[in-house]
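To whoever is covering the structure queue this week,

Two jobs came back overnight. Logging them here so there's a record in the thread.

Job A:
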Amino acid sequence: MSAHCVPLLDAWRRNISAQIKRSQSLKLCPQHVALLREPGVVASLAEQNAKMAGTLLRTDGTAAFRRFTPDSLAAIEAAKALECVDCEEEMCQDQSQKKKKKKKRKNKKEQKDRPKPSSDLEAGKVVPFIFGDPPPELLNVPLEDLDPFYRAKKTFVVISKGNVIHRFNAEPALDWLWLRPFSPVRQAAIQVLLHSLFRLFIVLTILANCVFLAMPYSADALGFTCIAVYTLEALIKVLSRGLCLGRFTFLRDRWNWLDVFVILMGYLGMFIHLTGFTMFAVLKVIPLLPGQKRVVGAMAHSLRRLRDAAVITLFSLVIFASVLLQVFMGGLRTKCILIEGTNGTYDDLGFWHDEDPYGPRHINNHSNQYFLPGRLDPLVCGTRSDAGGCPAGFICLWTEGNPNYGYTSYDNFLGAFLSVVRLMAQDYASDLIALSLRAGGTYNIYFFVLMSLGCFCLLSLLLAAVSMAYAEMNNAAIQDAKEKEEEYTLILEEMKRQQEQNETSAVATSDDQDMSTVNVLADTEITVEDVQHPLDRCTSLWRKCAGTVLVWNCCSSWVILKKILHTVMTNPITDLLMVIVVITNIVFMSMEHYELTYEMEYTLQLADKVFVAVYTMEMALKITAVDPYHYFQVSWNILDAAVVFLAILESSLADVQGLSFLRLFRTIRIFKLAKFWPSFHSLLSVMHPANVLRCGSSVLLVIFFFFFTVMGTRLFGQSYEFCVCKITKDCELPRWHMADLYHSFLTVFYIVGGRWVEVLWDCMEVSSPALCVPFYMAVTFLGTLLMLHLFLTLLLRSFSGDHLASMAKGNGSRRNLRVAIGRITHGISWAARHVQQLLGQGQQPGPAEGKDVALDQLDTAESGPEPADGQPDELKDKSLTEDTAATVHVATDEASAEADGGESIIIQELKPENGHSDKKNGVESSPQHTAMDEEVPMPPECCTENCIRHCPCLALDITQGRGKTWWTLRRACHAIVEHRYFNIFMIIVIVLSSIALTFEDIFLEHRPVLKMVVEHGDQVFTAVFLTEMVLKWMAYGFNVYFNDIWCCLDFFILNVSVLSFVANGLGSPRRSSLPFRAVIPLRLLSRSQRMQVVLRVLKGAIPSLINALLACLTLWLVFSIVGVNLFAGKFYHCFNKTSDEYFTEEDVHNKTECFLLMEGLNERPTEVVWKTTHFNFDNVMNGYVSLFHVSSQKSGMDVIYSAVDSRLIEEQPIYEDNLYASLYFVFFSIFGVFFTLIFFIGAIIENFNQQKSRSGEQNIFLTDSQRGVYSAMKKLGLQSSQKAVSRPQGLCCHYMYDLVTSRWFDIGMMVVVLLSILTTMLETADTPGFFLGVLYFGQLVLIFVFLIEFILKILGLGKSYFSTGSNILDFIALIVNIISLFLADLIHFYLFPIAPVYLLRLARTGRVLPLIPGTEGIRTLFFALKMARPALSNIALLFGLTMFVFSIFGMSEFPFFLSEEGDTGIDELFNFQTFFSSFKCLFICTLSGGWESFVYNLVRSPLYLDKKHPGFDVWGSWVNPLEGAAFIYCYVLVVSLLVIYMFIAFILETFDFDEVSSADAAREDDEHDHHD
């Protein structure tokens, strides 16, 4: 990673301006190819450094394609002999150096100068355009190698159909058969191997084998037949390529290893049952599909990039797991045990034995443990005061067993490591944290916060490594395309010069014919065959037929009618009317819901018929205007025709039973908006099938799903069927299993989506962990890598120059909308102006010609010709920006310009460096940062000129009298507010007022002293803020004060404080104003530049985000309407509130029987209810909420389960009765989540790129001072800032210095550090006392070794020891180790938590990483983390402020709510009663999926409590469900946006130091050479 780091943002910029497709269509005509073979042309191109033509073409003027003959083989042997002579001379010169073993680095340098094979002539690539097309008779026959590198090596090439290069060895294929290259058998084998029918036959065989493998029970004959075909294929490959002697033989290709493995497993399967190994035959299809080898190579390249990041990640996870093991060891074993006859205290228990009634048998009996309703595991508790408690009659005791079948535990290192992996992968991390805090105490929340930040950095490193790997490949492709285009232009220019030198008339005529092509190509416009009009390539007969039948020009009257209709249908007003019709149709489709009234249903049906009539009329008029021939050449017209056809089909088959699904095709009408909406068009283009299929990762992903689906069924299918009772009480298969293919596919899809831990537990219970763990880890890792690769591919492809250019060519309809709106606006203005003239109101307006001219210019600009590809880049980029290239993904340029223009007023910088005030548009700059040239700061004018004009009394003479006194007072106030101590004082006051808010919880009523302090403190803070406002009014004046956004924010917050103070004085409860006073901490925004720069970026992204969000919501509207049509009214069920269970289908069949059951319970009618789930599809809004939960894949599982169990409307659900309804959610996860995420991230990155380009800054997340430090750090690079330590004078110290600075000493200490980690990892909850003593003694020895190391370094380095941060950290860790080893219990129970102690003890392990060989990449990653720290800290500050404000608001609004018993989310530990509890809840909400349980509890009805709130005469909850859901949703959206920007700030901004890394690598090479 140290050599070439390509930042993703740089790749993004190059990708937007690049057009790779043009380079793939480069082609020379035969005349130009013949001219290119002339030696003079080749020599001239070689002098101009042409990459391909100057090095690959022959200089003797002979043909490029020549048959491989015995003379060719003799020439190769002669060239090889000459090369061997030169090699022998070099070996003799270097023979003296061979005895040395330090030659590796020199060989690496020499390899750069050695000749290498051409990358354009590699096997599997297409013949470059400089060679032209080979003659048909030379296809599939041996030819001399085209690459000069192989002309001295025994190789030949064969060019197959499509000009694909295949390279073979010229050595005999099999020595014992003597199959030389000219043998008829070998040539026949080559002909068969490269024939397309043979390739198709192998692919069909593999597909048949896949079908055979997918069948649950099938005969072995088909499998043996497939193995025989694979054997025949391998034999043909061996006969054509050879076995192993040679570079291009059978076994030298790693893909052939897969063939050998499949064949061996197939033959062994005849005698041994090999479950799962036969599935590898599916992977044989990968090398046979075009482009898949390249995708696999790209993934392998990304894996190499992941190496260094994986080392850091693994090392960090080991440290986190060790700390977790020490802090929570055995904590999840404590359960609530039933103890009869006690008061729930430990004093009543005494001492127990196995024979005692309350001994271990009683404790470990599950019937004596407390279970929450619906839970499989007993309730976990803790012994600390802040840990989870037990209900009355139960006591918290140590038991056997851990939750989740014992796999979630802290008993040993493996269990702790799995927990850390869960936390990093965010797979039910909220449940893990809740269990840990219940057992170990809520004070440990800070440790999980630190771990979450660490896991975020590790995850960012992994994503950045993969992103950089793909960015490098994409950049290489763009660079290669650019070089090919440049060389293509160079070749044409050279041939043009050669043609001008010819004097014959035939050559001159040829020059005239080719002049236009040469001139155009010289301007970099590549002329390709007209692929945009496929009908032009058809036969002349078809053209004549199409022109006769599909072009209607029967008479002059008809032509006139066509012209009139063409004018009407292409008018911008028509497009605007159609947009209004489409939007109205969407509104009517969204009005459908469950239990429609008859009138509403009739209205919707009538409206649908009207819309169909309008669409039909539009299609008929367009066909009449442009003829069917031209109408169906436009893709948007084909969509319109499909909408009309499906609407007519639906109306004609509306009464046919079983065809109601045709109503779903109405949603296609929503896609008509993409014609006029660039962002929606861009979103649809991301998921376009052609765009997806061009990505090789998509095909590879399909193979991946099939492979692991079938393998999972074969490995675990029978285990699930036979051992299902281990994981379910009723011995019924769970939702996620692998007993059949469909459930196996859903399980694999579920795992790839990020939810693997629960299904892994079930698998390990029913099967062997030795099989489950590798299988699930492979699915998780490979699936995530494939999804990430597909994500990056689609992201860059959808925002590439080719894609933007293709979208810009069809933006006439979008421009027409702007023209129509402009005309309507102009018409309204003209009408209003003339009405004023008629009524005599106002003066005579000026001439309107200017506006008419402006409108004409608007029409011309909007409907002007499209920019051609041959335009200069500046005009092309400008045309793309003016049309849709920028507006496709982000807001319009006008909106961005308005955002930038307002930035000078809304968000101000600090004091200008020159000390002068900065005015813009007549408005002073920020009042907090204004200064004058004079020594005493001069305040600005108090009032505006308009105010002085209307009130002349405000104009005072400041040179004498009252005016002078007033001016002196203002100058004094200005000096006060501009003083830095005043700002520091105000920051302290804001922080204190914010801290005071944290004490205003529901328990404040029981703390009178604290309540009095808080109330008086609030009064003092309000007075201080009021004084600050008055001082600023005096200093800056009203004009400047109220033109600054931060002053306006302070003014608003102050008003809130004053109004709350007044309300309290009038007798209103103090807590009633707490939600409004929660905004007081926001005053820190006006004081912190670091948060202001982040807000500036967020503000500039608002138009882009709103535009992208609306496009995504429009796509979700399609799924919501489909969900309403599929599931409306089907999620209802009859529920027994007494047992808290559903009635089975045998008890209650439908809604009617449920109501009959209610009527039968006269005394207790409320025990049975007919209700729906909280998240359903009864209307479009409920569908939106349900889809939002499904997108997070946790509480969304309840929505999926309800859909799978649903039947008909108002019928009781049955378990998995509608199983294939899950496909709806699969499609939504793909198109509604994955593709929309690609589009949304792309819009953010594009906006980020635009903001960075406009600002001209290197990093827009940094302040000015931070940018200076950032630049200095970047220049410093990876060089060590440690000063050289001088050698001490004393002899003893001299020896000590040599000892501690030697590499062997570092290696020895590395071994000791690894031993210290090992001693920590070996400790378990069940460790015997003797082994504990051994570990304790080992720790003593290791501490003694570290102490000796400290003494030696002090003697050898002296005071320079403390000049290095790592040495200081080692010293602190040594002191902590010594203290904690003897006083661990005292520290844990009386001083502070023990987790920081273990963190410091293990901190010294970081010194191991630099000692690992080849750690340049690791140091680069650490340097990247260091460079990202300022930007991440700025975003983290805003993140923390957001959490603080929301915590205060949650504490004020939802303190009286606890969930019902058995529900997750809000309980006695996680609630909103105090600030700390509210912070814990929001931290859980920050994690993936943790927020859903809180939403579920807040929207649940009825809401109640069975206990009285302290200090209030209130029973039950005061929670408004809508308010609670809105609170959580808003927090999740804000936090998600900040997290996305944190990833962007890290991935896009921190790996931009190629020169630094290269310089560091060069420095290391020099150092090694010097030592050598």
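Job B:
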Amino acid sequence: MARLADYFVLVGYDPGKRGSGDGQGQILQRFPEKDWEDNPFPQGIELFCQPSGWQLFTERNPPTFFVAVLTDINSERHYCACFTFWEAVESAQPQSHPRNGEEEEEEPSSPVQPAQLFAPKSLVLVSRLDHAEVFRNSLGLIYTIYVDGLSVSLENVIGNLLTCTIPITGGAQRTISLGAGDRQVIQTPINDSLPVSSCSVALLFRQLGITNVLYLFCAALTEHKILFLSSSYQRLTDACRALLALMFPLKYSFTYVPILPAQLLEVLSTPTPFIIGVHSIFQSETQELLDVVIADLDGGTVNVPECVHISLLPEPLLQQTREALSMVLDPELEVADLAFPPSTISASSLKMQDKEIRAVFLRLFAQLLQGYRWCLHIIRIHPEPVIRFHKAAFLGQRGLTEDDFLTKVLEGMAFAGFVTERGAPYRSIDLFDELVAYEVKRMRAEEGNKQKILRHIKELAEKLYKNENPYPAVTMHKVQKPTEGCHLRLHQKPFPRLDEGMVQWIIDQATAKLQTAPPAVKAEKKCMVPSGPPIAAIMDRNGNALANSARRLEVVRNCISYVFENKMLEAKKLFPAVLRAMKGRAARHCLTQELNLHVQQNRAVLDHQQFDFIIRMMNCCLQDCTAMDEHGIAAALLPLVTAFCRKLSPGITQFAYSCVQEHVVWTNIQFWEAMFYCDVQNHIRALYLDNNEENHTDEESTEGPQEAKSALEIASEQLRLWPTMSREKQQELIQKEESTVFSQAIHYANRMSYLLLPLDTSKNRLLRSSGLGDVESVSNSFVTNSIAGSVAESYDTESGFEDAESSDVANYVVRFINRFVDKVCTESGVTNEHLKGLHVMIPDIVQMHIETLDAVHRESKRLPPIQKPKLLRPNLLVGEECVMEGLRVYLMPDGREEAAGGNIGGPPLLPAEGAIFLTTYRIIFKGTPTDPLVGEQVVIRSFPIASLTKEKKINVQAQVDQFIQEGLQLRSCTFQLLKIAFDEEVASDSAEIFRKHLHKLRYPQHVRGTFAFTVGQSPKQAMQPKAKEKNPSLRTLSKNLVKNAKKTIGRQYVTRKKYTPPMWEQRSSQHFPEDNEDEISVSEEMDRSTLTPTTTIKPSDKMTINHLVERACCRDYQRLGLGTLSSSLTRSKNEPFRISTVNRMYAICRSYPGLLIVPQSIQDNTIQRISRCYRQNRFPVVCWRNSRTKAVLLRSGGLHGKGVVGLFKSQNAPTAGPSQTDSTSLEQEKYLQAVVNSMPHYADAGGRNTLSGFTSAHMSSSDFSDKRQPKLGSLMKQVMGGKDEGPGSVSRGGKWGSIRASGRMSSYALNMEIGSRLAGKDLLGTQHNGTPAEASFLRQHRASLYIIGDKSQLKGVKPDPLQHWEVVPIEVFDVRQVKASFKKLMKACVPGCPSTDPSVAYLRSLEESEWLSQIHKILQISVLVVELLDTGSSVLVSLEDGWDITTQVVSLVQLLSDPYYRTLEGFRLLVEKEWLSFGHRFSHRGAQTLAGQSSGFAPIFLQFLDCVHQIHLQFPMEFEFSQYYLKFLSYHYISNRFRTFLLDSDYERIELGLLYEEKGERKSQQVYKSIWDYIERLNKKAPVFFNYMYAPEDGEVLRPYSNISNLKVWDYYTEETLSEGPSYDWELAQGQPEHVEEADRQDTGAPQTKRKIIWPCYDNRSRVEPDAISKLLEELQNLEMELGQVPERWKDTWDKVKASQRSEARQEGSRTPSSLLMSSGLSHHRRSLGVYLQESGVGSTLNLSLDSDTSSTSTPSSGKQGGRRSTSTLYSQFQMSESENRSYEGSLYKKGAFMKPWKPRWFVLDKTKHQLRYYDSRMDTECKGVIDLAEVESITPGTPTMGAPKTVDEKAFFDLKTTKRVYNFCAQDVQLAQQWIDRIQSCLSDA
């Protein structure tokens, strides 16, 4: 029972006190006067009666009523019902009118009498019960008695009111009367734990709306500050009450003031959360509150400030709640759209609606907190239960760890109260307990079914309503109300003073009566609280997420069983999958369970590898755990990490915990608390279970499985029994529980020290990332009085251990454990003695553990490191040697996506772990991918050291779990990038040594240091540091060089003995191998130019000429008919050109070849003079002649500007004085004129030869020229590019020689004019500069010689009408631009790191590199020159120094114009002639030595090869060589593997003795020093360099498109093969496949499969799937091998196939599809778009056994007669036999093999193929046999043998001796025989 009202108070206006303008109230009377013992009188009631302040009013207001709520210090709420009315103020006290600023003394003198004023007076009831209506009625009754003057004693009524007692709960109904003829019925709620809300909740929703209320609800639960505003006090109280009712079953435990008085407004700036109501007149004061959510009830708004973030309910609950609320509040919404809405639907009454809304929120809480009882830990049962909630586990099981709202709610005070109040296992239960236990399943089932949800809500609402109104029918209130308007009566007496004594007497009597009455014991119905279904059962809907994990769990289980069965390889394969699976919770649980099983089977002692696996799994498992450990993973692992161990040495064991300490979870005190409580609960449960079993052994059979009882059930059972136990029994149980907790505390102190003390305690690595310093703030401890602090300090100071190293870590750990122990022990009621004991023990525990750890640490250091994969040795070439043994590194992925898995998919081959090797030739990485799924593959990436362009240090994180390591990024111009991270075992000085060696090898002192020279020597020598040597005098040096050169040229000279400085021998420390017979020493400081001696070589002419004749150029000149050597000696005047030997000693031009083609009429001494006008003395020489138009192509360096020659003195130019003499210029003109004169049509009168006639004559022959390219004029315009320079840019500059010209013309005008003249148009009118264009009138015909020069050189040259040449100024890019462009191209094709948007980035960077536009430019110029030559004009290309772009253009022109250069042999010749002989500076441009280091790499030759590749793509049938051939050259011209592309000119090569050393016996067999020999041999073995589509058209001139849109990025730049590295070192690439097969064979267990998986960027496509032809050839060879025949050369086979194909085609008369490929008659269109065969690349693994160089079918030789054009080219036997390649043919008798007769045969000598073929008769197409001239050793006159033709002269017989046999021949007569012998002989000498 409880008092209805505790105090009755009368509060009035206090006239005496005035505040700041407001009056104050005072308590006039209070009853009872003494405070009740159980309920002291609340302070500050006078403030709450007038919350807006005490003021006087000028008129009477009607009485008001509201209820304020006060909270006392024990957080008990007191309800103050205030009834206020107004009374007139007696005028006798005028000062009561508050006038601001007036002092009291002045008042009486105030003459004005104030108007009548009214002061408020309040009747207040203070009660702990919230029966607002009863209070309103009772106070109203008292007012009525007073105002209407009823004859009832007020004291009596008040006395009765204060003594009325009513039951608190239980649904009783009590009728009360206050003794004034009134009657009231009070209904108490059935269950007082459910709040009473009448209609307040429904009203709140009406005022604010659904969303706003939900915001407020969430804000209140997540502890935000909430302020209500309204102009009605009653509404404020209602709103606050409604909000609290919604929060049920949580109770609000912060400041709660529904009506805040004005004087207390500063409370709003309190830092703690609150719910406060304030009258809206104070709205302005609330504006500056920044963190308060303000709800305006009158306006219906909720204002959330910007800085406040309210976490809303988790979805889908939020949506469901909204829907349910709208169904309740707005039932018409559902049917609003129906055509015939049902009439019945309408909202429930307000009271019912109120309960329905509360039902929705009750359901919401049941869903939010479902299963909460499964996360309660009961730590003590007796003397009273202590319960903790495992928050992390709850969130984890609910899958809401990320959810902000629930996390905040669980951390909040309200929830802490909820656990304390509802955690108890044995208590009375209410609606919420039932709902959460029994209805959750139903709610889950009904989800989404609106009708059922609504039905459930209505059921709950009924219960809530029933709780508030147990007897709805009876409401028989009878209370008198005052008469209407009575408050306006004028002469109202003031409220009388009441008689205290009388009231007190009534109260006393009632109290006495209560004491004699028996105490009304409320029978509490206690019972065991049902737990409801466990969360796991509820959360099934996440099933789909777990479904696919069954396979993963299988993987985890298998992997663990493999580990324990010691099948490490299997385990390793599964391991990555396990690590990936660990991302899922199920897999982690599975891991802990599996490991647990193994511990139980006593398999906890592991060997090192097993231990390592288990540790890695545990670490992976823990790394995804948060510090909260919401899934209980760390908790499950905790017992395991102290179980698994390995023996390090006798007596020393390392446990797993020492390796899994790196995780935040171990440093989170809340985790340890939860773990501790969980264990304590288990132990206490066990304690009582054992007791039960002792007592009930006999009943066990009947009771069934009682072990299944949860701890809470046991606890409730114990609590039920507790009152019935004896005192001793109770004490005993308390004792047992306490010691259980205590023993666990000791256990945990140990465990914590295990996981907190690092293995190496000397390192202070304990304070990890989680900010452990402030653990106090982390812990949600309620403990304040800690002993730990003091004890820990005393430990620090008085500690016996002064071990400086470990004490800081130890102290830290001790403090941490102390803090933990303090907290848990205080909470779980451990006695103080025990606690002190613990504090003493902890330092000892820690210290002992440190000692054991030291031993373990010592031993574990001795362990061999984990087995890293064996280093794989790379295969090396013959003569290639390792300079540095492998350094263990990781190869990291770079910007190329393919290897790392990328968007193509496929396994990540990178990162790979292996080693980097440095050999004399290459840098090689070889290793295996770190991803074990591809762990059996081998990854190789390598490039030649010579191609290294950039090396920079980088820092990389090689593996996820490792630290950042130093690494290197090495970039090569073979388009390769090695991004490596050194393994931690590699010391940084090893890495430095590696870099130094690399640098030395990359930039040797001299060319002799490069691999091509040092191959086969031991590298050690090359690596030794040089002794310091002074710079030897230049003379000595040059002497040595010259001496060397002379020796190699092969004659002994007697030289005068010169004085040699004595130190020379001692100084020189570098000995070259004997091979070179002389020592050369070049010191580092020397400039490059000093390498060329100043003397010139003068051996006898004869020797040199012999050597020179053998050079490529010379063979080519003979082929082109540009003069043979014999003609140059016996000058036949009719030839326009001659071969001059003027440069044979390289005296005139160091960078030209020894033999040059010059006009016949020019004398050698003139040449000497002319050469001075040109840069580097490179005067114009002829390099090619068009066999049809007889136009010639010349090349030269650019001209020296006049007077500037001094600056350009080339390194070997004899100084020509400051300016050129006139004679020189005249000679220069004479020279050009001689060239012009050489052209056959020059003799015609100039005027006749107009362009149009010319075109008709010459251009008609090329029928497709119009299809392919624009006409010449426009070509010319394109090339000269008027775009770049505006029309007005008149540029001045030196003039070209003295081509007689005056007046400066704008170069633009010049361009225009030349262009249009070429196009055959007249330029009428005047030109830009106003001069009439006479030139164009005078000469309408085409010039005989065009000089293509650089715009900048030719500024201001005026075309001269009398000359026959014309200048075409063009703009070209210089070498600097090529370098820059190439750098960008490399970065684009092989980026260093992945870009954000790969597709765009690649194409954009490709465009920015401008590489393709340079190629476009080169092709464009070349096509122009080809057109000019083809139309009969000669062209002189004179750009830059004549050795870069000039070479590119000249070579391309020849390639496009002359089919011969498109054969394997011809291309070789072209490169040897134009690039090598004419001095392209390979060493300099490739930066091959130290001197070239600064200049950097300029890929001029590569650019040329790229151009050839572009042409090859457009004309796939015109080239005998394949794309692979071009790639091969691109790779090896910078690789330094061959000597071919070393040095800068023939002169330098002779000096080093390179050119002629191959002759004679010294020819070395094992290493090919020349790339050409290598290609030739390789080509015999396998058709890699051969293009099967080769079917040339006769004499076709190619005109490729050069627009950028027609150009392709060369795949050489982008492709790679990781399985074997670059495929251009053929021997290495070939070795691979066989090993693999052997490996496969051994493993017979694995299923054999024929399938091949081809991975992008890993496999060599062309080898794994060769193209059809290679494949067939290969199969043929294999068959031949099997049949035991000597396999035929692939070339022979191919030729046979083509020949037979041709004959078939002829028989059928029509082409079969298969013959299309071979035939050459395809229309031109088809050809240019040709069928692309997959380029055979390295593809065919043809016959690796063919090492024997027995026959060399395919070494053709170009021994063509002088004037004959090489129209037909190699292997074209499939045109009609007449057009076959027949240099000479005729009939000869041939003696058959042994015992065979002589037979006449038709013989054909084929110079191109270098063979002698024979047929049965002249008409025969089937070749009967071939004699390869390469194998011919000698031709001797023969003797007739038996059976020879009788009629023939003896001298007509001759024998041909080859390596295999001797052939006997006989001709018709002696002359014929002599002719044959000569022909064959000449073929042989050409070879």
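Note for Job B: The radius of gyration is 54 Å.

Please reply-all if you pick these up so we don't duplicate work.
Q.
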